[in-house]
Amino acid sequence: QVQLAESGGGLVRPGGSLRLSCSASGGNFRAYTMAWFRQVAGKEREFVSVIRGNTGGGATYYADSVKGRFTISRENNRNMVYLQMNNLKPEDTAVYYCAADRQIILSQLRSWPDYDYWGQGTQVTVSS
Predict the structure, then answer these.
(1) Burial class for 51, CB neighbours closer than 10 Å (0-12, 13-18, 19+)
(2) β pairing state of 122-126 and 10-12
(3) Residue 65 DSSP class
(4) What are phi and psi of 90, to 5 degrees?
(5) Alpha-carbon span 112 to 102, nearest angstrom
(6) Best CA proximity match to 85, nearest among 6, 8, 32, 1
(7) How many whole angstroms from its chain centre is CA 120?
(8) Tens digit of pLDDT for each residue in 88-112?
(9) For residues 37 and 90, what is the distance between their CA atoms, to the nearest angstrom?
(10) With contact defined as beta carbons under 8 Å apart, do 32 and 98 qualify?
(11) For a pLDDT cut of 70, what percent of the chain falls above it?
(12) What is the 3-state secondary structure (H, E, C) of the chain?
């Protein structure tokens, strides 16, 4: 069983930056694929970014809407994954969730139902 906890959300002006953190406990963190999704009330959960575990070589993938602005990274010795968000836009406003899965395959990386473990989410609001 893996427990995830996000932090770092808040209110930021357009063009600003935030760094989200996700701490993980339980399981072999290095082996887990870690992802960020986001959700606006009334809409489906949306893929943001993912970083593979050691079997996937730490490969990273991004949604087109955040490519070039967001960066995902992980610190395996601290069981942490991060999402650095730059040049934030009002449309980035959402609850951001950290997700983990050990056995997810390449074709499922962007599919939120295929992840086994989830954090509680952290609110990001981009507004002037």
Answers:
(1) buried
(2) parallel
(3) T
(4) -55, -30
(5) 14
(6) 8
(7) 12
(8) 999 999 999 999 999 888 899 999 9
(9) 16
(10) no
(11) 100
(12) CCEEEEECCEEECCCCCEEEEEEEECCCHHHCEEEEEEECCCCCCEEEEEECCHHHCCCEEECCCCCCCEEEEEEHHHCEEEEEECCCCHHHCEEEEEEEECCCCHHHCCCHHHCCEECCCEEEEECC
* φ, ψ for residue 33, nearest 5 deg: -80, 130
Q: Please give the backbone phi and psi of residue 78, each rounded to the nearest 5 degrees, phi first.
A: -115, 0
Taking only the tens place, the pLDDT of each residue in 52-93 is 998 888 999 999 999 999 999 999 999 999 999 999 999 999
**Which two structure tokens, joined as six digits, stand for 34?**
């870690």
In a 3-state reduction of DSSP, which class is residue 35? strand
Q: Looking at residue 122, what is its pLDDT?
A: 98
Q: Please state, in angstroms and rounded to a whole number, the distance separating the CA atoms of residues 21 and 59.
A: 18
Give the number of residues written for the chain: 128
The amino acid at 86: N
Distance from the first to the final alpha carbon of the chain: 40
12: β partners: 126
Gap between the Cα atoms of 109 and 105, Å rounded: 7
